[in-house]
Automatic annotation (TrEMBL):
One GO BP annotation of this record: phosphorelay signal transduction system
CDD domains assigned: REC_DC-like
Response regulatory domain residues: 7-122
Coiled coil: none
Keywords: Phosphoprotein
Residue numbers bearing the 4-aspartylphosphate modification: D57
PANTHER family with a match to the protein in the record: RESPONSE REGULATORY DOMAIN-CONTAINING PROTEIN, STRESS RESPONSE REGULATOR PROTEIN 1
Domain of life per record: Bacteria
Source species of the chain: Maribacter stanieri
Record protein name field: Two component transcriptional regulator, LytTR family
Residues that span the membrane, as ranges: none
Amino acid sequence: MKNSPIKVLIVEDDMIIAANLSIQLTSLGYEVTGILPRGEEAIIHVREHAPHIILMDINLKGNLNGIATAKAILKEKNIAIIYLTANSDDATFELAKETQPKAFIAKPFNKLSLERTISLVVEQLKDVSETASIEENIEVLDDRIFVRHNGRMEKLLLEDILYIEADRNYCSLVTHHIKHVLTCTLKVMEEKLPSLNFVRVHRSYIINISKLDVLADGHLEIGRKVIPIGKSHKALLLSRIKTI
């Protein structure tokens, strides 16, 4: 992605709007992989050309509207969706949210709003790409993890970790004495750490269950840190507590 232009697919059944989009995107330095009026065509195109971003009209004509098309595409590939829409009703918005789009652009749009929106999405894609490359270098052994500190890799014993807190594409590994910040998602940390000791208790937290001090109805405490318990994670937490 760093050395090649961002590829954008336009799925829009108004050819005047689509052509205008293509001209503007090309002038901004993006590569337009196609202009398609139908969702079925978009699904096939994505398999062959793998764009980074799809500008998707919500109200496509034909058997598949934009939301249904996005759902079908996302089952096969993780591609950033930006919806184009003149329809701002709440029901449509809620349905579109289920596909976790990167942004919405309201029609009629101007070049500045288009440029800014896509630029923000491209930055998100770069963050994810850079994170993925670093994640591959995270080494977790049976009893330790190696973290970068002062320009070198240092060991951190797993038993010293109190909890892990997520902030977007970063994770903070907190001990009694120091906090290490890794460029890594919480999901990746959850997969790498031994599940016997480390439990996901919230969308933003994994705890070392051996360090648990207080368990309340909606939160827990480790040291003086109050950590919320997500409803979907509570049953797993309670089952793990029974095993220790």
